[in-house]
Amino acid sequence: MRPPLLPVLGLAALVAACGQGAPAPEAEATTAAEAPADTAAAAPGVMTPADLPRVCRAGLAAIHGQRVADIQIEGIEGEIVKASWRAPVDGGRLFADCRVQGDVVTWRPTSLPDPAQERWMDTAEDPVVRFVLRGEEIEVNQTFPDGTSEQAMLRVEEGGADG
Predict the structure, then answer these.
(1) How many angstroms separate the Cα of 136 from the Cα of each of 2, 70, 109?
(2) What is the pLDDT of residues 123-148, one digit of tens each?
């Protein structure tokens, strides 16, 4: 199993080094996510299954102007992370699903009164949110439809308290 994985990881690293921004197909993302921990440590930016909730916490924190510590993971269903945080206006809770495809974080609001509004934020009118793993820190870059962008470097420890 290990020898066939190495060419895929090498190809993924080559594509990333060339600066191509297209998300990796799901098959490649799944293969990279199944990489052994020692391979992930040797190849920066390769996401492991443990990184999925970390990346979603960082992405949702950056998107919604929250502290990473305020984003609570409610559960994981397959490749979807379910999260919530305190609503800034009324103190209630806001809920969202998050998924990662290649280096892109996508989310959708959930638990809304009108389920028709619970759509994935992945159209041309939505910001594109990309991430780079940098150890315990995750760099989040948002590019807005008008071409402007924001960058945040967020510390997200695996399973620990962070902020």
Answers:
(1) 26, 17, 26
(2) 999 999 999 999 899 999 999 999 99
